[in-house]
Amino acid sequence: MSTRFEEIDWRPTPMGELTLRRRWDPSTEKDVYEIKLGDEFLMSSLFTVAEEELARRALADLPGTELDVAVGGLGLGYTANAVLDEPRVRSLVVIDALAEVIEWHERGAIPLGERLTADPRCATVHGDFFALVRSPSLDPAVPGRRFHAVLVDIDHSPRHLLHPGHAAFYRPEGLRRVLDHLHPGGVFALWSNDPPDPEFTSALETCFPAVRADVITFANPLQGRDATATVYLANGR
Question: Is this structure's pTM higher than 0.90?
Fold first, then answer.
């Protein structure tokens, strides 16, 4: 058994206190890694099914090979890792507003960091995804670049935001900007910790011709029951 609790790193950031910690979970008998921003849990390695399904379901909706993918939100790397598990993926750009999280991956403080940083298909960008989606390119190194899939796992849900400045993205005028970064027929996918939101689904339908909200069920060992999250999938024109 490893150390019961360890604070691996703590950093003050403009968004609040950022903490990376590891704890031994007796219910699963394994180490659990957690990232917290203030009192908010950004990510836990105890719950990764929905984050992985975000990638798998989005890519399953795409035909062809040589796929280029952008992910908004790095966290513990589970969505990015699931993208790289798909052999049809040619390139992956992962955007995160917290340089500290990128650094943790680069120095191996997070278990998946070594895999992500070693894969030549994967590049990380320190930046604000919501600002970049309003710019000419999600990849500052390649102006006008388009992707076959844009996946987002940043806020807890379209209603439960980490910052009020993110709210405009979830409205029709914000969602339309995603189309500027997608190839025709590309996929936009979003993770949410809340049940399907009819108002947000309607906002997606004003921008994308095909929209669905998949409920992802996974085990919650802390509560001894199943829990759910939502993956929204929208196909571009």
Answer: yes
